[in-house]
Amino acid sequence: MGQLKTAATERRSHQDFFNIAVSVDCVIFSYQDKALKVLLIKSDLKEFEGLYSLLGDLVGPDEDLEEAPYRVLQERTGLHDVYLEQVHTFGNIGRHPSGRVITTAYFSLVNSKSSNFQITHDDVSWHPVNSLKKLAFDHKIILDTCLKQLRDAVMEHPIVFNLLPEKFSLRELQDIYEAILGIELDRRNFRKRLMVKDWLVDLAEMEEDVPHRPGKLYKARPSLKKNGRAPLHIDQRLVV
Amino acid sequence: MGQLKTAATERRSHQDFFNIAVSVDCVIFSYQDKALKVLLIKSDLKEFEGLYSLLGDLVGPDEDLEEAPYRVLQERTGLHDVYLEQVHTFGNIGRHPSGRVITTAYFSLVNSKSSNFQITHDDVSWHPVNSLKKLAFDHKIILDTCLKQLRDAVMEHPIVFNLLPEKFSLRELQDIYEAILGIELDRRNFRKRLMVKDWLVDLAEMEEDVPHRPGKLYKARPSLKKNGRAPLHIDQRLVV
DNA sequence: ACAGGAATATGTACTTTTCACACATTACAG
DNA sequence: CTGTAATGTGTGAAAAGTACATATTCCTGT
Question: How much is the mean pLDDT over chain B?
Fold first, then answer.
């Protein structure tokens, strides 16, 4: 904002301009049962009875915008140090029935099997992204926008590891890519491309308790501090 | 925003939450004298005396967020139907000295030689992006973020035509790419890549008044309605 | 103990894309 | 009409991406 004092501005009252509430909404992705899931809460608004909505909250008066989604994540999942990426800000007049609210959407990648993870509210649950038809507010559009950005990001940046436990097999990794992109990948080419990128460390360990030949286990290269909290606009998606 | 009524929310007063002002800031790019320029205004705030800032304004109470940058462009340049792309929302607590203001940044591509273009304010002027060191507020960061996004976008999407007049030569087009990307391009490979993309229509006309062999003139393929006002989050950058 | 099943691991030929690079042509200027 | 400065075009080499088949390992069931 450059000019608080343009003529046009001064004509309007202070009251008007501080009548817009600011919120954040989090599209929290996880990977379970071979599917990409998103964390949703039952809407408690009459207008959206029976519908689910994203997890969000108003931005506090003494809270940086970027703090807010971390707080929401923390409050809702117990997780901190999650991967978050700002996606888009939605601000149509009629998007919220209770008043003027603009919202900044973030997507987050979490491992729902992490020991720290716990859902603190009964009405919050995981939903496969593919089977969602209608959400409260404009949240379906927000979700679709985030999903699109995730798909773009995932090919270029080593962020999917945030969906997985510390140790994982190449098969699990490939399954995630397939779930996110919605396409099948050739196993040999997938592994080759991945090895070229040098994102992985071979742990020289094997899967256990699988009903078939166990695969090798890998972890993400430690230098990929993908879930740090560097300013998002700088490019949190590390390019290796 | 999903839940207006969480416990945490209700504890805080209405007053608090409507104390955040919402603005937009426009990084308005043009191409002149072989350089990428950005439109800036002298800051009228004491804190930023002598510094320039981006063109922005508060979002009106009855104005869609996405309307606001179009309005700013219209008011400041006389242009409508410009190309605009939302980039990022900046909302740190201390970013505006006069109070809590979060701002959504857009970049815009305009042709400053368009007949409709006119600057309506003496303190508004073009500046080469490369020579800018310090701007008011966090506007240098905003500018850098927009420039980065422009660089990414320009390789994939046919948006640079918005910087050019209706008719242009391949040389002019290449100059723009070089100015935006900050690198030199091989002429033959550049032309080849472009022809493959099928973005151009050969006008079978020639440059005039050039001090050397004239080049052929082209225009952007009409189906690239790049400056339409489709919802930004859908993907305004047409993929051909 | 062993055979069968199911998934892992790996290499090679082919195609497409990217990149580096040189020479003939045209119009204007003097 | 000659020199200059830019336009216009093609080819070969390297790199990246794609398609594809066989051998191996471990678990399971008999």
Answer: 88
